[in-house]
Design brief:
This protein is an alpha+beta fold and about 140 residues long. The chain is built from five helices and four strands; from the N terminus they run αβαβαβααβ. Strands 2-3-1-4 form a four-stranded antiparallel β-sheet, with helices on both faces.
């Protein structure tokens, strides 16, 4: 049941991302060969009672560090119903491609500012229980192409 709701949420988020990014994608589309961005949908499940600590870390540190390392923040969401509303953060990033994503994540994870922020936010214990990631590209009928 929870998995079905999560799949519906991810589908809805994909539609939101498509409508949000359509203007940017068409405005920045190069002439000639078409460039397709890679999107990453990430879902974090927190330890009990730690969702606000995770939101604080993202708001105060993480989103800025993502941009510093070449990742584009598309959006951040928390479920509104049920258990997941107490322990889940879902967000979408955009990357220039898979190699760019891998490099961005490598650089982000070794950034001293990130290491410091993570350490401070986890001084009382771990925040994230589970992290899931899926990379997606627009279909050939998506407005993002």
């Amino acid at each position: 049941m929870h998995r079905q709701k999560l799949l519906i949420l991810v589908g809805s988020l994909t539609a939101i991302v498509a409508s949000y990014c359509f203007g940017q994608a068409t405005a920045s589309r190069p002439t000639g060969k078409e460039e397709i961005r890679l999107f990453e949908i990430r879902t974090y499940t927190t330890e009990p009672g730690k969702l606000e600590a995770l939101n604080t870390r993202f708001r105060d540190h993480t989103t800025e560090l993502f941009e510093k390392h070449g990742m584009t923040n598309i959006g951040y969401w928390t479920p509104t119903d049920g258990e997941r509303s107490q322990d889940t953060l879902i967000y979408v990033l955009a990357h220039a491609g898979r190699e760019a994503a891998d490099k961005s994540w490598q650089d982000f994870r070794s950034d001293p500012d990130w290491i410091k922020a993570r350490g401070q936010s986890e001084a009382a214990g771990p925040i994230v229980k589970k992290a899931e990631s899926i990379f997606v590209t627009p279909t050939n009928y998506s407005p993002l192409r």
